[in-house]
Automatic annotation (TrEMBL):
Its EC number is 6.3.4.19. Belongs to the tRNA(Ile)-lysidine synthase family. ATP binds at S52, G53, G54, A55, D56, S57. This is tRNA(Ile)-lysidine synthase. It catalyses: cytidine(34) in tRNA(Ile2) + L-lysine + ATP = lysidine(34) in tRNA(Ile2) + AMP + diphosphate + H(+).
């Protein structure tokens, strides 16, 4: 008798991703496979699981522990202690013990300090990814696997819609991201219910982070209020539709970015310094491509990407499409955009 359907589903999703990790490590695309062994050999590539102890990441850890040895991969894990709740260090120690019992190794517990930049959710995310990056570098990991599900993807798209973000933001989380394709998300096509069932069937203890139900956090409100209200008003299938929107938007955004690469090169002012663009060439571009060129140029000049919003780019765009002798536009990071005759100049003031 085979495994429960939920267990089979998570294992299949992980197996497919680990096949890709092994292929990429063999081709040298991913991070170094590991230190040399005595006798001239090398250790098999290492895949690390980022595990909070919740159902999604525990299901992921169990599937990686099962599949990795069958593919000739080593499997380890990392849990990050954000220090935001009483007893967090003790919970992190419990997670380490559970991961070790699954047969994963090495298993790290990393304590981080969460700042305030961008709000509590963004600050925690930044601290977490910095810790995961450091762990991957330290162990020479070929990949770090994350337990984000289709439900997480739907929440991300809905948050992007609420912010009035562009196509790239609506594309949600990529299946492969990070430096050298480090981060892999095997569960983006699976729902949260499947991972929880998989844990139940395998008798895996899970920890439900109270922050995930705290209405003080935006994502929590989306999860427990906004999405259920949408499903009640529009019928079931909203989560699937939002996740599908992410896939379609990612394809569109990738195509627009490729177009922007060429447009950026062709829009540079002849004999101009960095940050100087030809207004006539910019004007001839489709708005979606032109605004991408403007955003890239502003970021290259020193504007923080996370602080550069659509309204900033729209104001700069008016220097091209609705020129009436406007003054320079001040952008985040002390970057200034101004029109000088037939040139648009974007650089730090």
């Amino acid at each position: 008798m085979g495994p429960h359907p939920a267990v089979a589903a998570i294992r299949l999703a992980v197996r497919r991703v680990l096949h890709d990790v092994l292929r990429d490590a063999t081709r040298g695309r991913a991070a170094p496979a590991g230190p040399h062994l005595r006798g001239g050999g090398t250790e098999p590539p290492l895949a690390l699981v980022a595990c909070s102890g919740g159902a999604d990441s525990m299901a992921l850890a169990s599937a990686v522990a099962f599949e990795a040895p069958r593919l000739g991969l080593r499997a380890g894990a990392v849990t990050v202690d954000h220090g935001l709740q009483p007893g967090s260090a003790g919970r992190a120690a419990e997670v380490v013990s559970r991961l070790a019992c699954l047969g994963l190794g090495p298993v790290d517990s990393l304590a981080v300090t969460v700042g305030r930049k961008g709000g509590p959710e963004a600050a925690a995310r930044d601290a977490r990814y910095a810790a995961l990056d450091a762990a991957a570098e330290r162990h020479g990991a070929a990949a770090v696997l994350l337990g984000h599900t289709r439900d997480d993807q739907a929440e991300t798209v809905l948050l992007g819609l609420a912010r009035g973000s562009g196509t790239r933001s609506l594309s949600g989380m990529a299946a492969v991201s990070g430096p050298g394709g480090r981060y892999r998300r095997p569960f983006l096509a699976l729902d949260r219910q499947t991972t929880r069932k998989a844990c139940l069937e395998q008798s895996l203890p899970v920890w439900d982070d109270p922050h995930n139900a705290d209405p003080a956090f935006t994502r929590s409100r989306v999860r427990h209020e906004a999405l259920p209200s949408l499903e009640k008003a529009l019928g079931r299938g909203v989560v699937e539709a939002l996740a599908r929107t992410a896939r379609l938007s990612r394809d569109d955004a990738d195509a627009l970015d490729a177009w922007t690469d060429e447009a950026e090169r062709s829009s540079r002012a002849d004999d101009g310094a960095p940050g100087e663009l030809d207004v006539g060439r910019l004007y001839a571009l489709p708005p979606a491509v032109r605004r991408r060129v403007l955003r890239r140029t502003a970021v290259a000049a020193g504007a923080p990407a996370g602080s550069l919003f659509a309204r900033h780019i729209e104001e700069v765009d008016r220097l091209i499409t609705a020129w009436r002798g406007q003054r320079a536009i001040n952008l985040p990071g002390r970057v200034e955009a101004r029109r000088q005759g037939g040139r648009l100049v974007i650089r730090q003031s």
